[in-house]
């Protein structure tokens, strides 16, 4: 991944220690929720000597603001699986989808079999616009639901895990 500071500058955003810390956490921990990002950026919400390191002073609202600005600037992608908090990743600009475990919530990327957006087309796909409202389809976001390998593995009667 290119230097995070350069990515911020190219997106027209000011480089701050909070933005760098949040982007670094999302890059290192894809599919994290805002609360998970906050816990990783500022465990115990205490200051550390290096302001750009995880642990830098940052509020919950600042994390949400950085995530929102990152999505708006195209640096982050927001994934909104049904019944679950939004998740964030730095993998943007390509056509991929997600696998989500119904048991533990583990999320994994899966490349699109078609390759080019929108990947799927509505029933009246031969028209440039779709439906009576004239929608122009630009992308399709697919979520595959199932069980990850750990949750699908047979469990013994003494195994308390899900």
TrEMBL record:
<keyword id="KW-0804">Transcription</keyword>
<feature type="binding site">
    <location>
        <position position="151"/>
    </location>
    <ligand>
        <name>Zn(2+)</name>
    </ligand>
</feature>
<dbReference type="GO" id="GO:1900376">
    <property type="term" value="P:regulation of secondary metabolite biosynthetic process"/>
</dbReference>
<keyword id="KW-0408">Iron</keyword>
<dbReference type="GO" id="GO:0003700">
    <property type="term" value="F:DNA-binding transcription factor activity"/>
</dbReference>
<keyword id="KW-0238">DNA-binding</keyword>
<keyword id="KW-0805">Transcription regulation</keyword>
<comment type="similarity">
    <text>Belongs to the Fur family.</text>
</comment>
<feature type="binding site">
    <location>
        <position position="104"/>
    </location>
    <ligand>
        <name>Zn(2+)</name>
    </ligand>
</feature>
<keyword id="KW-0678">Repressor</keyword>
<keyword id="KW-0479">Metal-binding</keyword>
<keyword id="KW-0963">Cytoplasm</keyword>
<dbReference type="GO" id="GO:0005737">
    <property type="term" value="C:cytoplasm"/>
</dbReference>
<dbReference type="InterPro" id="IPR002481">
    <property type="entry name" value="FUR"/>
</dbReference>
<feature type="binding site">
    <location>
        <position position="148"/>
    </location>
    <ligand>
        <name>Zn(2+)</name>
    </ligand>
</feature>
<feature type="binding site">
    <location>
        <position position="101"/>
    </location>
    <ligand>
        <name>Zn(2+)</name>
    </ligand>
</feature>
<dbReference type="Pfam" id="PF01475">
    <property type="entry name" value="FUR"/>
</dbReference>
<dbReference type="GO" id="GO:0045892">
    <property type="term" value="P:negative regulation of DNA-templated transcription"/>
</dbReference>
<dbReference type="InterPro" id="IPR036390">
    <property type="entry name" value="WH_DNA-bd_sf"/>
</dbReference>
<dbReference type="InterPro" id="IPR036388">
    <property type="entry name" value="WH-like_DNA-bd_sf"/>
</dbReference>
<keyword id="KW-0862">Zinc</keyword>
<dbReference type="GO" id="GO:0000976">
    <property type="term" value="F:transcription cis-regulatory region binding"/>
</dbReference>
<protein>
    <submittedName>
        <fullName>Transcriptional repressor</fullName>
    </submittedName>
</protein>
<dbReference type="GO" id="GO:0008270">
    <property type="term" value="F:zinc ion binding"/>
</dbReference>
<dbReference type="InterPro" id="IPR043135">
    <property type="entry name" value="Fur_C"/>
</dbReference>
């Amino acid at each position: 991944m290119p230097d995070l500071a350069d990515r911020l500058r190219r997106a027209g955003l000011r480089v701050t220690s909070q933005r760098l810390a949040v982007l670094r956490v999302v890059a290192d921990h894809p599919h994290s929720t805002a609360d998970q990002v906050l816990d990783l950026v500022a465990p115990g919400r205490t200051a550390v000597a290096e302001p750009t390191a995880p642990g830098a002073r940052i509020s919950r609202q600042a994390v949400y603001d950085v995530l929102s600005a990152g999505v708006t600037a195209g640096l982050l992608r927001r994934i909104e699986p049904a019944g679950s908090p939004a998740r964030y990743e730095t993998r943007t600009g390509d056509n991929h989808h997600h696998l989500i475990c119904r048991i533990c919530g583990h999320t994994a990327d899966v490349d699109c079999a078609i390759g080019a957006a929108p990947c799927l087309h509505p029933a009246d796909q031969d028209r440039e616009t779709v439906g009576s409202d004239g929608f122009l389809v630009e992308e399709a976001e697919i979520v595959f639901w199932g069980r990850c390998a750990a949750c699908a593995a047979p469990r013994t009667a003494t195994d308390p895990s899900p």
